[in-house]
Specification:
disordered N terminus, 8 helices, Muramoyl-pentapeptide Carboxypeptidase, domain 2, alpha+beta, 2 domains, 4-stranded antiparallel beta sheet, 4 strands, 9% strand, single chain
Length: 189
């Protein structure tokens, strides 16, 4: 194994993440190259690692809004997530620990950490930067989307997360976007 991959693997293990890259050097190299290529792309704006995922969400939510189907789109998303949410529900019920609901939605899934580039974890809550602001501001200027952060939060993020909690059997309290651009999700049970 090359020394830099070995050093990265060792530092990740030291940070508490048991990740082995033995035999995965090519895949790791591709991932690093993709990250560098994305982050160096500053035209027409500085791209972030989550841009493609954010744009797909925005495109879908804008379509639903334009067709008057925002509520149905959230219901569809919750329905499509049901198998995963039921698995999380089973772990919450088995352990009688509502913290497992937050863990299952936020900590264990690459879908979330690829969307939100930061996550603060504390007992009973998760806090993250609202992931759509950067792309949404740029896209509104060119007429691609007309959604605002507050609107997107109210018709998409908040009802979606609250719906996830309902399937899991807990109540998620989803804050508004605060002055720092952050959202806090707390589990109430």
């Amino acid at each position: 194994m090359n020394e830099s991959v070995s050093a990265t693997s060792a530092s990740l293990r030291a940070a508490g993440d048991a990740i082995e890259f033995q035999g995965e050097e090519e895949r790791l190299g591709q991932a690093v190259a993709l990250a560098l290529r994305t982050l160096k792309d500053g035209i027409p704006y500085q791209h972030e690692m989550n841009d493609a995922l954010v744009k797909m969400h925005l495109n879908s939510v804008q379509f639903a809004k334009n067709k008057g189907l925002s509520k149905q789109y959230v219901e569809h998303d919750i329905s499509m997530m049901r198998p995963t949410l039921e698995r999380i529900r089973a772990s919450v019920l088995a352990g009688s620990d509502p913290e497992l609901a937050l863990h299952g939605i936020f900590d264990r899934t690459s879908c979330f950490y690829q969307l939100c580039l930061d996550l603060e974890v504390s007992p009973g809550r998760r806090r993250f930067t609202f992931p759509y602001s950067h792309v949404l501001a740029i896209s509104r200027r060119i007429g691609q989307f007309d959604l605002t952060d507050a609107e997107l939060h109210e018709i998409w993020l908040k009802p979606r997360l609250e719906g996830y909690g309902g399937v899991i059997g807990v109540q998620f309290e989803v804050s508004d976007i605060d002055a720092e651009g952050k959202v806090t999700v707390s589990v109430l049970r």
